[in-house]
UniProtKB/TrEMBL annotation:
This is Uncharacterized protein. It comes from the Bacteria. The chain crosses the membrane at residues 34-57, 69-87, 107-124. Keywords: Membrane, Transmembrane, Transmembrane helix. It comes from Actinacidiphila glaucinigra.
Length: 133
């Protein structure tokens, strides 16, 4: 019963967010550039990120940590794909309010946070199993 409610709530939240995204996309001046970027992101994910994650997860990792490692690689790859435009275009922007933060540093901090959380997942699972016994 609870799973059904969770699915409906998650689906409703997804539809609302998709609607917000579509609404915001209609207000973009350079729709062609956005569509090229989105298409490039899909190709980058399907051609590079997903196969690498599956290969690394299958070859290098064994046992119960395969899932967290794959998850960390997938999230790290997606974060990198989103951060690529900023990371590949170093220097000060013409308008300093466009990119006011240190994005390369924040990207690295986020990748470290993903790695730490992924490393803690097997530990938390092991503690949970030992408490149940």
């Amino acid at each position: 019963m609870r799973t059904g409610v969770t699915r409906w709530l998650t689906g409703a939240a997804g539809l609302v967010l998709a609607g917000v995204g579509a609404y915001r996309l209609l207000g973009v001046d350079d729709l062609t550039g956005v569509l090229i970027w989105l298409g490039g992101a899909v190709v980058l994910h399907d051609v590079l990120i997903a196969p690498l994650v599956l290969l690394i997860g299958s070859v290098l990792v064994r046992g119960g940590v395969r899932g967290p490692v794959r998850g960390a690689l997938l999230v790290g790859g997606a974060l990198t794909a989103v951060a690529l435009p900023v990371l590949l275009r170093p220097g000060k922007p013409a308008n300093p309010s466009v990119l006011p933060l240190d994005y390369p540093r924040n990207w690295l901090v986020t990748l470290v946070a993903v790695a730490v959380v992924s490393a803690l997942v097997p530990v938390v699972r092991r503690i949970g199993r030992s408490r149940r016994r």
